[in-house]
Amino acid sequence: MAIENDHRLQINEDEQIRWIAIEEIMPNPYQPRKNFDAERLNDLAESIKIHGILQPIVLRQTVQGYYIVVGERRYRASQLAGLTKLPSIIKELSDADMMELAIIENLQREDLNAIEEAESYQRLMDDLQLTQQEVAHRLGKSRPYIANMLRLLHLPPSLKDSVQRGELSGAHGRTLLGIKDKQRMIQVGRKAFKESWSVRYLEKYVNNIQEGSQPYPKVTKEPLKPKFIQKQERLLREQYGAKVDISTKKQVGAITFEFKSKEEFERLIKLLHDK
Predict the structure, then answer these.
(1) What would the mean pLDDT of 152-162 be, rounded to a whole number?
(2) CATH classification of 3-147, choosing from 3.90.1530.10, 3.20.20.190, 3.40.50.2000, 3.40.50.1820?
(3) DSSP states of 231-267
(4) Which of 4, 15, 24, 72 is labelled catalytic?
(5) Is position 72 annotated as part of the catalytic site?
(6) pLDDT tens digits along 229-258
């Protein structure tokens, strides 16, 4: 289910979209995302200058002011775009709601790196006293998926940093955990990054270490999409709040929007028609 369809965020009859001064708005203290990519924020800011904000942000009002529940990237990009007021929906929510909704938003927007995602699950378990199964149920994930992500928190700090910077994927990190010696694990992780190893190749490499066999298989690099295409995918994902894939072959291409429910499909169609 798309986060916009969460019952806690539905607009009631007595609620209206309000324009809140940007200086009165504060970031969500439970925001799981620690790093906001400057280039992506600038891209979104340029989009906001042209198209405006397509979806209002969600705020929680307290005695200190307004805290963001959903929409922190839009808030930060709006600051860069020079906006002074933001369209907002004010909801009465608990601290637990703020934490959970911030995580759900980032997961659905694919805004978290694997370490931030794992830390989010761990924080839900610690702060709300939840089990892995309960976290999985609340976030629409399987328990094995949650358990696999939490394994990444056992990586040495330097490899965690590599995953956070995007040098290695979460799948790379989980594969490296198969190496028991921490120093060897770090060495292999650095080699995997420098030589652009695929996850499949790293798996073979780690298996050979475990079996004590030589030689290692030949590295094959996987092609990456052009930066222009990646940028357009990011912009569309930010604008429509859905996963977007752009594929090209010779002179023909396709833009694909992903939706996982009828409600999400209808929301996307409405946004496309409104354009």
Answers:
(1) 95
(2) 3.90.1530.10
(3) HHHHHHHHHHTS-EEEEEETTEEEEEE--SSHHHHHH
(4) 72
(5) yes
(6) 877 887 787 777 777 888 888 788 899 988
